[in-house]
Write a structure and sequence with these properties.
Layout lengths: L1 E4 L3 E3 L2 E3 L4 E3 L6 H9 L3 E4 L1 H42 L13
Antiparallel strand pairs: 1-4, 1-5, 2-3
């Protein structure tokens, strides 16, 4: 069964963050788990709720990745424009160039 950690704490010698979903190894002392639930350190999570939370987390990661890609594209575009500006300088005819003197 899955459990949601209700606040930052240490469980089984591992530091857990609030909202983290954990699953205890088979053979974990049932009374230990029961005490954590009774003390409201963890709460049982229904499978459907767990799947929904995983899906939401996945969507958030995808959105962050998409935003990062857009930002990288925009930075790349700006670099290209800057290069165009820099390479265009000094190539044209100067004040006296091209005139018959």
């Amino acid at each position: 069964m899955n459990y949601e950690v209700k606040y930052d704490t240490q469980i089984e010698k591992i530091f857990r963050k609030k909202g983290e979903i954990i699953t205890f190894k088979e053979g974990t002392d049932k009374n230990y788990i029961k005490r954590l639930v009774n003390d409201k350190i963890i709460a049982p999570v229904e499978e459907e709720q767990h799947k929904q939370e995983q899906e939401e987390h996945k969507q958030e990661e995808e959105q962050e990745q998409e935003q990062q890609e857009q930002q990288e594209q925009q930075e790349h575009k700006q670099e290209q424009e800057q290069q165009k500006e820099n390479t265009g300088r000094g190539k044209g005819k100067g004040k006296n160039q091209g005139k018959n003197q």
